[in-house]
Every structure is written in C-alpha cells, then in structure tokens.
Amino acid sequence: MFNVFSRYASYLIVLYLFIISFSARAQEQTETLMSDKMCYACHQLDSASIGPSWQAIAARHAKRKDQLVEVLAGKIIRGGGGNWGLVPMVPNQRVSEEQALLMMQWILDQAP
Ligand code: HEC
Asked: pTM, whole model, 2 decimals?
C-alpha cells in the first residue's frame, strides 16, 4: 500500500516539476519577446518611465483583469492614451494578437 502511494506521489512530483519549469520557461520567453518588441524602451518593471511600470498597470487592473485582458492586448497593438497621463502609447504593429495576449497576461501577473 505504501509503495503504491509513494510511486503515485513521485509521479505527481515529477509532473509538478514539469509544470513549474514549463511555466517558468514560458514566462522567460514572454519577457524576451517584450524586449525584442521594444516595450522596455518605455516601460520598466517597478518604476514609471515614459509609460507606467508593469507593476502599476497590474495593480490598477487587478480587480478586472479577466474582463480587461483582451481590451488591453488590443491597446498594445493599436496604441492609445488617456489612462495614465498626457503621453499616449504608440501603436506596436509588429506584435500579433497572440503575442499581445501573452504579454498582457504576463503584465497582469506582475502586481506587487
Ligand atoms: C514609445 C513608448 C512606448 C512603447 C514603445 C510601449 N509603450 Fe506601452 N505605454 C506607453 C505609454 C505612454 C502608456 C500610457 C498610455 C495611457 O495613458 O493610456 C502605455 C501604456 C501601456 C499599457 C497600459 C494600458 C492601460 O490602459 O492601462 C500597457 C499594458 C502597455 N503600455 C504595454 C506595452 C507593451 C506590451 C509594449 C511593447 C509591445 C509597449 N507597451 C510599448 C508607452 C509605450
């Protein structure tokens, strides 16, 4: 009985480690993508520059993140202003919808 249990547990541990490393890798890829697409020219993790920080964006939209993720992903592509100050965001037209959604999910996970 114990053997069955411990074998089962070790499968679970392997599965767990696999999921952890997989999602860590996916996160790294999203961050690399965002540096490739020049997001860091105007945004940083924890301090405002030309645009608001990722943490500030995540904190601001935390309560409605499920409803807003697609709208905000659209704003990444089309650009726009009025939410944070006088400077609008330029359109980032070389970002696909799928990429914008990945980025937006990553950003919304950065709430401090
Ligand atoms: C040229 C500067 C610039 C670049 C490049 C840029 N942004 Fe922005 N971003 C801004 C500014 C300015 C704002 C604030 C706009 C506003 O007030 O609504 C902003 C706002 C945002 C927001 C918050 C939108 C909201 O309404 O809360 C997100 C999310 C975002 N940017 C993601 C990105 C991503 C992802 C990239 C890279 C593909 C990127 N930005 C590239 C300047 C930039």
From this structure: 0.88
